[in-house]
TrEMBL record:
Complex formation: Monomer.
Function: Catalyzes the isomerization of citrate to isocitrate via cis-aconitate. Involved in the catabolism of short chain fatty acids (SCFA) via the tricarboxylic acid (TCA)(acetyl degradation route) and probably the 2-methylcitrate cycle I (propionate degradation route). Catalyzes the reversible isomerization of citrate to isocitrate via cis-aconitate. Could catalyze the hydration of 2-methyl-cis-aconitate to yield (2R,3S)-2-methylisocitrate. The apo form of AcnA functions as a RNA-binding regulatory protein.
Keywords from the named record: 4Fe-4S, Iron, Iron-sulfur, Lyase, Metal-binding, RNA-binding, Tricarboxylic acid cycle
Domain (Aconitase/3-isopropylmalate dehydratase large subunit alpha/beta/alpha): residue spans on this chain: 77-587
Single GO MF descriptor: metal ion binding
Needed cofactors: [4Fe-4S] cluster
Tree of life domain: Bacteria
Pfam families assigned to the protein according to its UniProt record, in alphabetical order: Aconitase (PF00330), Aconitase_C (PF00694)
Official protein name in the record: Aconitate hydratase
Coiled coil location: none
Family statement: Belongs to the aconitase/IPM isomerase family.
NCBIfam families hit by this protein: aconitase_1, PRK09277.1, PRK12881.1
Length: 917
């Protein structure tokens, strides 16, 4: 179909003698989109996306006009649009099920008599294996190698599958383990700021945009690349050329003035920004940074701020293209012509930010003077709970009573200055006779409340920023020169986001100093920030648990939620890399490191933080000398090759995957069983049983399997029956490629409450008519064997929280045909439709409680074959005593595209038939 080009915006751009087709925002403004040049830069990216993808079906002229109307409604109108990102980024936990679905689609295509090679991603997909390395070994020269060996041992089945996928699919690349974190690899190598593709013999240029299966995809917003995290189903839809449904957002402008004071870091800045924006309330909104202070932030500082958009609650944290963008692209080894294209394109489109330019229109604004930022941490439980470093020790004392679960106050350490202490290596001040240090088996030191047991330089937030990593190296160098040591109870680790970091730390001679302080390389990946901190030494773990101690972690990550970092650690603080080193030396949160000595030098003199803290000048001198273009060119020259482990993985080279029935990690899902080229007619729901009755705010974390797998339960039973020992269960995350495990974990969260079994927590229900109490999975399977459909009832805000593909996939595999709720979270609703499950909404004032449902009723819904978007349909509920209720429900299949997905049996069968045809 010809492009309608309703606003006559198609133009050509000549850059260094090469012609590019582009969709000109200035021309569109002249042709009816009045005021488009005043839009925030992030919305200009969205507007271009709509202009380029106008097809009079998914993108209509009125959708494009709604972007100009934004200047009047400022995003409050809630207009829904179809957005098509340029590419998709995945990490291995979330990427495996997407590749499993692609492989299953190839099998199904072959079964339909078509060519399986037709099934490939339709937009470029990069999968970076970064979520599986754990810190089992640390503080030793060969820690990284040993951790990688264990990683391959644990994840061999998954890696064999991904290695096959990397060769089998076009438009799909895999960055092997041991390379870096997906967000840092994206920032340093994959992202281009302006993307291009060949189309009908022409080269089209447009903004680089993406969706990613990790919430911190936003990090690349620092490079003026619009992108954010989505669930697996949206990512798969985008990968297969389907639009991502979104509302035109409100955009909060964040004005930056001034310059950071001496002694502060980008980490201190982002913790301040996170606290401010959380207080403001920006959930579901874009945040865009502007103002004269941008000139005083490096691009890596901007990426640090953008990274934590999920922590401040925004969809994205966008920085426009400016001269620093061009400088960073050059410094990281990007193609010189591409950099020229980025500059020419941004200037032609009014997307290039320069000091003194007219400020865009925003929904609302807030402002920060950088000179007011102070050294900070965030904790002990949430990233927005910033504490000034000067107050950290005192605030920890206040938090300790709650963290102890109400232990009596007299057990707390007393005020500063008591020099009595019990053992060699213990923290001298703050200890009183009431607070003993508890014995650690086989050690000369004890352990107490407040001791830092994990100090980790980890996670994409900070390891992409050379300034803070060089600062950590300099703190280590100065501490080492003075003879300071890390306390013996601290587990130290350094997990950079890319191999470039190791290169420049070694080039500066700083890696040796970090090694001397126990911060040896442990691997390249997310490690501690996602809970892959590995076990604490057994004796330390036993002492913590036997004495019910509040142990502490200090990490340079972005997440510190309770129970996330390590099961033995109750208090977790986010901090800059140099502060991580300082706390490893101090060894306790009771040390006020702004006033107390960290330790003593060789001559017994006190050493304070100020004695080992580097100046901004020292840091920038080393960064200028060591972080050079050639490092990036060398390290990324063969980024997809992998190490000897990756090279040694043997896979069958075929268009379809040779599934192993014995695998407990990767299995062929049943979405396409019995599929024909023509969809079977939609059938009505007759005499369905109720699988569960839920109250308000059931989140995707309640529905979707996550975390550790319990020994006693359907998933644990399945693994044991396949000769997997409980110690080798691994996590639901690692087993996302096996639907047998995942469907058994759906609705199995230990905190979920099904009102059919009042007073019981966990995934339990009643089977009818037997009345027997069973795990939800077991009841669902019994209903399937009896050929009885099921439905789920819920309250308000069903499916809130992060988008999780298995919340919808698990639901359909359990045999649920419909979910009937008072309201839905927007993305989970669309995910249900994408898997062929119908969402229905009660009319205002009606709920399953008001109808007096108990769970023993049957449910009939007719007219589904002819249902229209947002149509009111009748549901017939028959009580156990034979009484019949007729209840009107709103069908929340919202668009014609969604209706087609539903009639096809879901988005995957819909796309498969299109590609196979």
């Amino acid at each position: 179909m010809a492009h309608p080009d309703s606003f006559k915006s198609r133009r050509t751009l000549n850059v260094e003698g090469r012609e590019y087709v582009y969709f000109d925002l200035k021309a569109a403004e002249a042709n009816g989109l009045t005021g488009a040049s005043r839009l925030p830069y992030s919305l200009k990216v969205i507007l271009e996306n709509l202009l380029r993808n106008e097809d009079d079906r998914t993108v209509k002229a009125d959708d494009i006009r709604a972007m100009a109307r934004w200047l009047d409604d400022r995003g409050t109108a809630g207009h829904e649009i179809a957005y098509r990102p340029a590419r998709v980024l995945m990490q291995d936990f979330t990427g495996v099920p997407a590749v499993v679905d692609l492989a299953a689609m190839r099998d199904a295509t072959q079964n339909l008599g078509a060519d399986p090679d037709k099934i490939n991603p339709l937009v470029p997909v990069d999968l970076v294996i970064d979520h599986s390395v754990m810190v089992d070994y640390f503080a030793q020269p060969d820690a990284a190698q040993k951790n990688v060996d264990v990683e391959y041992d644990r994840n061999g089945e998954r890696y064999t599958f991904l290695r096959w996928g990397s060769g089998a699919f076009r438009n799909f690349r895999v960055v092997p383990p041991g390379t870096g974190i997906c967000h840092q690899v994206n920032l340093e190598y994959l992202a281009q700021t302006v993307w291009t593709k060949e189309e009908n013999g022409e080269t089209v240029a447009y903004p680089d945009t993406l969706v990613g299966t990790d919430s911190h995809t936003t990090m690349v917003n620092g490079l003026a690349v619009l992108g954010w995290g989505v669930g697996g189903i949206e990512a798969e839809a985008a990968m297969l050329g389907q639009p991502v449904s979104m509302l035109i957002p409100e955009v909060i402008g964040f004005r930056v003035d001034g310059r950071l004071p001496e002694g502060t870091t980008a980490t201190d800045l982002v913790l301040t920004v996170t606290q401010m924006l959380r207080k403001k309330g920006v959930v579901g909104k874009f945040v865009e940074f502007y103002g004269p202070g941008l000139a005083n932030l490096t691009l890596e500082d901007q990426a640090t701020i953008a990274n934590m958009a999920p922590e401040y609650g925004a969809t994205c944290g966008f920085f426009p293209i400016d001269k620093d963008t061009l400088g960073y692209l050059d410094a990281t080894g990007r193609d010189k012509h591409r950099i020229a294209l980025v500059e020419a394109y941004a200037k032609a489109q009014g997307m290039f930010y320069e000091a003194g330019a007219a400020e865009p229109v925003f929904t609302d604004t807030l402002e920060l003077d950088l000179s007011t930022v102070v050294p900070s941490l965030a904790g002990p439980k949430r990233p927005q709970d910033r504490v000034a470093l000067t107050d950290a020790s005192a605030k920890f004392r206040e938090a300790l009573i709650e963290l102890q679960g109400g232990r009596k106050k007299s057990e707390l350490p007393d005020s500063v200055g008591d020099s009595r202490f019990m053992d060699e290596g213990a923290v001298p001040p703050h200890k009183t006779p009431e607070t003993v240090r508890h014995n650690v088996q086989g050690a000369t030191h004890g352990i107490a409340d407040g001791d830092v047991v994990i100090a980790a330089i980890t996670s994409c937030t900070n390891t992409s920023n050379p300034n803070v990593l060089v600062a950590a190296g300099l703190v280590a160098r100065k501490a080492h020169a003075l003879g300071l040591k890390v306390k013996p109870w601290v587990k130290t680790s350094l997990a950079p986001g890319s191999q470039v970091v190791t290169e420049y730390l070694e080039k500066a001679g700083l890696q040796g100093d970090l090694d001397a302080m126990g911060f040896n390389l442990v691997g390249y990946g997310c490690t501690t920030c996602i809970g892959n901190s590995g076990p604490l030494p057994e004796a330390i773990s036993e002492a913590i648990n036997e004495n019910d101690l509040v142990a502490v972690s200090v990490l340079s990550g972005n997440r510190n939620f309770e129970g996330r970092v390590n099961p033995d650690v109750r208090a977790n603080y986010l901090a800059s890399p140099p502060l991580v080193v300082a706390y490893a030396i101090a060894g306790s949160m009771f040390v006020d490191i702004t006033r107390d000595a960290l330790g003593q030098d060789q001559n017994g003199n006190d050493v304070f933080l100020r004695d080992i803290w580097p100046s901004t000048q020292e840091i920038s001198d080393i960064v200028r000398k060591t972080v050079t273009r050639d490092l990036f060119e060398t390290r990324y020259s063969d980024v997809f090759k992998g190490d000897r482990h990756w090279q040694q993985i043997t896979v069958t080279e075929g268009q379809t995957y040779d599934w192993d029935d014995r695998s407990t990690y990767v299995q062929n899902p049943p979405y396409f069983e019995g599929m024909t080229m023509t969809p079977k007619p939609v059938t009505d729901i007759h005499n369905a049983r109720i699988l569960s009755l839920f109250l308000d705010s059931i989140t995707t974390d309640h529905i979707s399997p996550a975390g550790s797998i319990k020994k006693n339960g359907p998933a644990g039973d399945y693994l044991v029956s396949h000769q997997v020992r409980p110690v080798d269960f691994n996590s639901y995350g690692a087993r996302r490629g096996n639907h047998e495990v995942m469907m058994r974990g759906t609705f199995a969260n230990i905190r979920i409450k099904n009102q059919m079994v009042p007073g019981i927590e966990g995934g339990i229900t009643k089977h009818f008519p037997s009345g027997e109490q069973l795990p939800i999975y077991d009841a669902a399977m019994r209903y399937q064997n009896e050929d009885v459909p099921t439905v789920v009832f819920a309250g308000k805000e069903y499916g809130t929280g992060s988008s999780r593909d298995w919340a919808a996939k698990g639901t359909v595999l359990l045999g649920v045909r419909a979910v009937i709720a008072q309201s839905f979270e927007r993305i989970h609703r669309s995910n249900l439709v994408g898997m062929g499950v119908v969402p229905f909404v009660f009319q205002e004032g009606t709920s399953w409680q008001s109808l007096g449902l108990k769970g023993d009723e049957t449910v009939t819904i007719e007219g589904l074959a002819d249902v229209k978007p947002r149509q009111t349909v009748n549901v017939r509920i028959t009580r156990a005593n034979g009484e019949v209720l007729d209840v009107p429900l709103l069908c929340r299949i919202d668009t014609l595209d969604e209706l087609e997905y539903f009639r096809a049996g879901g988005i995957l069968p819909y796309v498969l038939r299109q590609l196979a045809a």
